[in-house]
Amino acid sequence: MMRRRKRKERKGSPLSTPRSTDSPTVATVSLTSWSSSPARPRPLGLLPPPELRTLQEELEQDREAQVLARSVQGCLMRRCLFRDGKGGVLVCNHGHARMESNVFRGLTYAVRCVQNAKIIMLWNEVCGCRASGVFLRLSAAGLIAENNIHSNAEAGLDIRKGANPIILCNRIHSGLRSGIVVLGNGKGSIRSNQIYGNKEAGIYILYNGNPVVSGNRIFQGQAAGIAVNENGRGLIVDNVIWENQWGGADIRRGGDPVMRNNFICHGYSDGVVVGERGRGLIEGNHIYCNRGCGIWVMSSSLPQLSGNRIVHNCIYGVAVFCRKDSEDGGEGDGYLSGHGGVAGDNFNEEGELLAWESDLDSEDERFSSRRPVSVALVEGNYVGHNGAVGLYVKSSEALNVVGNAVHGNKGAGVTVLQSGQLTRLVANCVCGNARTGVTVETGCQVELRGNGVYDNGGHGVSCRGDGQVMENDVVGNRGSGIRLAESADIKVLKNRVQTERGWGIAVLGQVKGQVQENVVFQRRPGSTKPLLHRDAGNGVCLLLNNTLLPCAKTSSGQADALWALENPPPRPQLNSQSSATLPGASAHHAMSSRITTRVESGCHNSGSVLCTIL
Description:
PbH1, Pectate Lyase C-like, 20-stranded mixed sheet, disordered C terminus, 19-stranded parallel sheet
């Protein structure tokens, strides 16, 4: 049923905003809950999120959208009411249509654009559809801007089969499933939208969907903010994702997006979840104040976590786990049961005369992350002030942890609880954590090389597992410098260790291996514990060529000159500052603004790694 309202022509730009009093009502949405208000503080040192752009600002920077808005000159529908029927508007077979200020209500679907058709949708209200609100398929295109799309039974917008629309400045909310779904090689540019209050993901990308998602506000959903599943891809940049019930971003089962410079905060679960077989480049994001972990990675996943700031999350900063209890109940399960068709209806009887190929087919292209990766990589991140361990590893697969700053966490800096294969910690700065700097439990295989472990509340390095600890600086920790226990089989070579209270290096129990060519300092005079300790019953661990430098008093009763970490300077090495006079970790922290080191033993590209100490 279609009823025409009184038609009133407008003058000016084809994208000028309608001002009539009987246009669809628009709900006001508050965007203050993620800002620096007292209820939602932003941690110090974080940049403010980008502002939400207006349609005019988007069009000024997008020549393609401007041309598209002027080139679609087909049927014009303006200020019409479509309600209580099966379909609203069908555009197909290279057809063009323009829809402005209409209301689509209580239909099975509002708009279907298929088979190389193009549409312009401006200032419409699409609500209460029994299927998806706007459906684009088979290389359809168009501009969908400043619409109010809400309360639909399926996705607000459904993009499939090579469709490539531009979606700008819409409000997509209160849906019974996802806000936007992109699948079956669908593309699209999704920018500056407000997507909120949906029961499933704000944006769901799967089955080779590959959109550009930028500058959106995605909030207060009952599932994930963005979900990338079943070989979905996508470029996801500059979005603000907050207060979602599940992960801010959820990547699994072959999902392989690029996520850059997003603000993922104040979620009721984890910031980012990389589930089973998830991939992707997660780079330069601000992940903070989530009630779960900052980033949760499951075994069999191969993400690259690079240059993120992961702070003030309630549990772990980064957790690498064998599995997660909710894995089998993830949002991707059973998705096509409701989306493969549209509520069980056969639209061929509408006269589309289309061959409805399976939505699960895909181009024969195989994609991986931007650089080949065979081992999960955690590189160059700042992981600070989280409620438990900074980096928690309980995994059966190899992991490289390179050039990170792990600072001020309320548990240990790094805990390796389980590692069926080698976990490599190279050139990290682990400082100021409430408990032990690095903890390695029984049965784990680790390599610690070139790290700086400073001023932690427990031991510097506590190791019950196997592997090697080489060329690290372990300074200023409250317990022993390096503590080896139980039946570990480990080599401790060429480290520099300073202790204030405990042993410099302690060999306890039936530890096997060797402790060789280490330099052990004592900062305070009068310590009752020796710099190098081995239990009397241990005859299998070799102690060779270690240098012990106790702190002696002079005749005047003063301690002798403070020692210095030099040749090389404190690890990870300072980039541009001399550290020859640094007495220990505190001065090192005060003077360091950037640290760099050369990665050894075949780590990624044998290149240099930067991380920042704030």
